[in-house]
Specification:
Layout lengths: L5 E6 L6 H10 L6 E7 L3 H18 L4 E5 L2 H5 L4 E4 L5 H14 L9 H25 L4 E4 L4 H11 L5 E3 L3 H12 L8 E8 L2 E9 L6 H11 L12 H16 L4 E2 L3 H5 L1 H6 L7 H23 L11 H15 L3 E8 L12 E9 L2 E4 L7 H23 L2 H10 L6 H14 L9
Parallel strand pairs: 1-2, 1-4, 2-3, 4-5, 5-6
Antiparallel strand pairs: 7-8, 8-9, 10-11, 11-12
The chain binds nicotinamide-adenine-dinucleotide (NAD), 6-O-phosphono-alpha-D-glucopyranose and manganese (II) ion.
Length: 442
Amino acid sequence: MDNQKFSVLIAGGGSTYTPGIVMTLLEHLDKFPLRQLKFYDNDGERQKKIADACAILVHERAPEIRFLATTDPEKAFTDVDFVMAQIRVGKYAMRSLDEKIPLKHGVVGQETTGPGGIAYGLRSIPGVIGLVDYMEKYSPNAWMLNYSNPAAIVAEATRRFRPKSQIINICDMPIAIMDRMAKIVGLSGRNDLVFRYYGLNHFGWWTDVRDKSGKDLMPQLKQYVAKNGYWLGDKEPGKEKSWISTYKKAADVYALDPTTLPNTYLKYYLYPNYVVEHADRNYTRTDEVEAGREKTVFTECARVVKNKTASDVLFQASNHATYIVDLCTAIAYDTKQRLLAIIPNEGAISNIDPEAMVEVPCLFGANGPERLAMGPAATFQKGLITEQNCVEKLVVDAFEEKSYTKLWEAMSLCKIVPDATVAHEILDDLIVANKDFWPELS
Ligand code: NAD
Ligand code: G6P
Ligand code: MN
């Protein structure tokens, strides 16, 4: 792909993350040059609000880039090199139910974890498979970088149903945490760190973090995390309440295994009672996002469109998007950069099922990811990973076989659901709520 300008499609163009991705792409044109940028969404009205503002932004800052927003899959997926996928099947209305239904039963209600994550998984599988099929039909050589959640379940489904597809499932949580680690030790960002990490998506641990000279940073990081979690204190004005609490709670997650540093998402599995006790059943993370990020993004887009200029636009490049650019450049220019992705285990974690979709560092190049061996998981991690991976596999089994029992098993096995009766009750409520999205189960 050398000496080439690239064509990129953002699938889920109406996403709240789209303007940040566009800003990031525009700031990295020297590293990752573009000839074309397209948006695709199945909600044309929502996408238009973002696209009209982005069209102005692109036209002002890089008029040579062809820009198009469409709801037509053929127009969208034809002639593209990279698809950045970030769809939310059922949108925030369904995310809200994923959070509130389990909470009504006294169980953690969360976007990607527990019953909410399972519900979202069943909605996302056909949506993301649909995108893969469009890509393979209209641009068979393209790569898809998929952020659409729940990435663990989506990854298991794409491994099983589209094993040869060029899809890389990714997550920005370890990225965000590593940017925090860098700040804690006085470095500028995650790319200053050399790390070892293993687990499942939203379910992993760092076993080693060093600077580029080889200096072990774990002792300093552990000392900090034991006290503050990943919370950076005064350096983070304006951070939302729920994220502050998540970053702080990492201190208690760390306490369970002081030999590693944890992903923040483990709090839902290891401290579910605490999470439920501190939740408001009527105002969950979705309400916070709708009043915060979604409102800010759409208001700013409307302002740009009204003023017919993006010269003073407030959108900023994000670590979320710079990670996608890092991946694209690694594939495009065969850089062999060490980046995390969710891929078939195949020995990367030596004592975990080779078919599990695990999150480990890989060297990325023109042929995609080359996994790095992380050795065996310790007993505590092996137990947790094995159980959670079986939950994720059972969800995909349930989708494939349209099986109520498999889904009930998935919910009952899930660590944060107390017993099979509660699992049954939550499942029955979720079936009603998801009637427009899930296959009919029997
Ligand atoms: P959003 O609701 O603002 O945007 C999602 C867009 O997807 C909407 O415009 C919607 O109309 C569109 N959409 C839904 N189903 C579609 C389909 N089948 N085809 C085409 N378009 C479809 O959501 P958001 O908060 O911006 O998040 C977007 C996605 O990115 C979510 O899945 C979220 O979980 C995910 N995400 C993942 C990570 C990660 O670490 N993997 C990080 C951030 C966000
Ligand atoms: C992190 C995770 C994503 C998740 C997001 C939720 O970035 O890695 O997988 O979607 O948090 O953020 P939100 O602000 O929508 O609650
Ligand atoms: Mn994630």
